[in-house]
Amino acid sequence: MNYEAIIGLEVHAQLKTRSKIFCGCPNRFGSNPNTNVCPVCLGMPGTLPVLNRFAVELAVRTALALNCFVHKESRFARKNYFYPDLPKGYQITQYDKPLATGGYLEIETGNGPKKIRIKRIHLEEDAGKDLHDISPEKSYIDYNRSGVPLVEIVTEPDISSPEEASKFLKTLRNVLMYLEVCDGNMEEGSLRCDANISVRKKGSNEWGTKTEIKNLNSFKFLERALTCEIERHIGILERNEKIEQQTMLYDPKENTTRPMRSKEESHDYRYFEEPDLLPLILTDEDILSFREDICELPHQKKKRYIEQFGISSYEADILVQDKQIADFFEDCILLLNEPKQIASWIINDYMRELNQRKISIKESPVTPHKLVAIIKQLRDNKITLNMAREIFVILFEEGGDVQEIINRKGFEIIDDTEEIIKSVREIISSHPEELAKYKKGNQNLIGFFMGELMRRMKGKIDPKKAREIVKSELDKA
Amino acid sequence: MKKIIVDDKLIEHLLSLANIEIERDQFEKFKVQIQRILDYIAMLDELNTEGVPPMFSGIECPSTLRLDITQDGLSLTSAIQNAPAEKEGLFEIPKVID
Fold first, then answer.
1. Closest-CA distance of chain B to residue A376, Å
2. DSSP-assigned states of every residue in A181-205
3. Packing angle of the helix pair A162-178, A323-335 (nearest 10 deg)
4. Buried/exposed A43-79: b ≥16 CB within 10 Å, e otherwise
């Protein structure tokens, strides 16, 4: 029997504000425990929240970029539950009057582009962080994260496979990073994801019972957890048993999903209007001005690169995956109008060096000026491709100036045709056996003569030109 | 409003939501009190609210927003001074998961 999966995601993204959502404490990761806290975010009695305007701006920017309808009036609510990381006993969130509804994000799939609808986007506060691994008897809490602004982005159940879910999250992460709304750091928890999933027989119109998998903090875990959960659902259905609606946790060590203990979940949140906050009212002018701050998004950039620079869809896709790399590419083009060459250098040589050194392009010592200087030398036939690659690695390892390296290393191309012909003839005459084999039709021998020539000329000749000369001299010999 | 039946099950549910415990022999006393509260609120049902838009607050003005500026909060010493137990600046609590 064939089954199909129906998946929806809830993504939490921490907003890149300077201060928290309802108080002036720094929104900063990695500080010493409980040093970015105040009476408001510690939930002390009598304190009052005041909404951060920039958090609103970033959330609206996200909503507009995801094609959502931004409501001019939205409201905050209290979501009540007891957990030690939540000092007030409730989380301030948005419930029945969210900031934005009804958008979509288009993703690339094996079967072409697909629109994943966005159901809603709302603002809320993050909770503190529980630390369970310090001691076997006790838990510990750091409230630095309490009150960090979040947007929650909820999709419609439009996702049909673990791969699609992961693709959606990657695409969304990239958009959020382009918008400078979120730093996208999943290891530090800046971007987190819960997944709702149900399974049904293919072609059926009825919905299966859904389960929710919480706290998926990497693309790999999201994909694996969904794969496990789909298999688990299918197993239950095959045995004609009932799927229980419950909340699951993914265990990466065992690669399995298990139900959360009932204590960890509570569906009775008793939402009600947050009496300490007034409605959030946005004017047309506010929304218009937030819209102006939206930069060119990855898919728009990709389209432009293909049309304007004539690079392939594959190359454009790689370049737009990281805004810093896309910016670097465009900076290079401003200096030298050779988009195809530049794209190829960035995608092959540059990104390999970055990966090996585990650094970002911003931390790299090779600036657009330096990369372009190499490409210029290569284009003007002043150095060979091998020399260019060597210079590139030297720039990464030692820094320096392209011309200076060329001078120091004695890199140059011998462009004297007479001199090359002379060398080729000498090589041919001192290798009569190889020449004889060539004459009998063994074309591979061209490579042998090329190798000899390159060694003799210390690699300082244009291989294309050398090959032509070798071939014509061999044929004449 | 739907008629709510105040029975032992409801009391147990409320206790778990409020994260408190009371003795079993106190249940009857609380049932009476909670029923009295519900009856009081049920008076609202006598009002005709047809066509009246829901009102969430007595104040009809937009929320005040603050600029995204950081301010000094509490020192670590003040932040944890009321904690029953602490360790290296962290609040220490009973184990919440296995």
1. 46
2. S----TTTTSEEEEEEEEEEETT--
3. 50
4. beeeeebbbbbbbbbbbbbbbbbbebebbeebbbbbb
Test the A interface: residue of B55, B86, B91 with most A CBs within 10 Å: B91
pLDDT of res. A331:
96
Classify each residue of B28-47 as buried b or exposed e, where b means 16 or more C-beta atoms within 10 Å of its C-beta: eeeeeeeeeeeeeeeeeeee
Coil, strand or helix: which one is B91? Answer: strand
The conformation of residue A306, written as its DSSP 8-state character, comes to I
Chain A residues closer than 8 Å to B95 by CB: 132, 136-139
A residues 67-126 lying closer than 8 A (beta carbon) to B: 75, 80, 82-84
Q: Under CATH, which architecture does the A417-476 domain have?
A: Orthogonal Bundle (1.10)
Span A151-172, average pLDDT: 97
Tell me: the pLDDT tens digits for A294-309? 999 999 999 999 999 9
**So what CATH class is B1-49?**
mainly alpha
- pLDDT tens string A243-292: 988 889 999 999 999 988 654 445 688 999 999 999 999 999 999 999 99
In this prediction, the answer to ipTM > 0.90 reads: no
Domains in chain B: boundaries:
1-49
Closest alpha carbon to B60 in A60, A59, A73, A46: A73
Domain ranges of chain A: 3-289, 298-409, 417-476
Reported as type and span, the H/E element at residue B39 is: helix B27-42
- pLDDT over threshold 90, residue A447: no
B74 band by pLDDT with thresholds 50, 70 and 90: very high
Contact yes or no for A264 and B97 at CB 8 A: yes
Cβ A25 vs Cβ B71: under 8 Å: yes
Q: Is the per-residue pLDDT at A50 higher than 50?
A: yes
Helix (H) or strand (E) holding A257: strand A256-259
Confidence of residue A465 (pLDDT cuts 50, 70, 90): confident
How many residue contacts between A and B have a Cβ separation below 8 Å?
129
